[in-house]
């Protein structure tokens, strides 16, 4: 199986602590965090992804808005720099422990946070990063221990 993620969710997955837009969204996200923690591959997609899915029944889901698409563009550039390769929809990424540590380190330093500008969750994600992703009260649910292919 492959988890389909839009680019800016490569950042959001770093700080997911079980909060979100509604119970269905959170439950779905928890399941995805569990799959990623097990090392399931990520396929980058354009537009709404597996995390967005529970929101797509809304009349006007924000997932298709221009500002969200701009977040994806920013994240493609930033995460690509961490990976050391260009990434785009269709790219496959293995969420191993090394990648997670590298992304979190760069995220906490503020180097890969262009996508976060004016996001409603920015304060929460900043607090989690400032806590070094470790304090029990803000323990992210994505914890990968596997080794890359
Ligand atoms: S601030 Fe927003 S875009 Fe950035 S990681 Fe958090 S939820 Fe994702």
Index terms:
binds iron/sulfur cluster, globular, 149 residues, 42% helix, mainly alpha, single chain, three-stranded mixed beta sheet
Q: Your description of this structure?
A:
The chain has 149 residues and is mainly α. Helices cover 42% and strands 8% of the residues. The model has no long low-confidence stretch (mean pLDDT 91). The longest helix is centred in the middle third of the chain and has 18 residues, at 66-83. The chain starts with a strand and ends in a 19-residue tail after the last helix. It has one domain. Strands 1-2-3 form a 3-stranded mixed β-sheet, with helices on one face. The protein is built from 5 helices and 3 strands. It binds iron/sulfur cluster (SF4). Iron/sulfur cluster is lined by residues 8, 11-12, 15, 71, 115-116, 119, 121-122, 125.
First-residue to last-residue Cα separation: 16 Å
Shape: globular
Helix share of residues? 40-55%
Count of separate structural domains: 1
Q: Mean pLDDT, as a whole number?
A: 91
Compressed to H and E, one letter per element, the order equals EHHEHEHH
Main β sheet profile: 3 strands, mixed
Radius of gyration: 14 Å
Strand content: 5-15%
Strand order of the largest sheet: 1-2-3
Secondary-structure-based class equals mainly alpha
Give the uncertain stretches in residue-range form: none
Number of helices: 5
Small molecules held by this entry: iron/sulfur cluster
Q: Total strand count, please?
A: 3
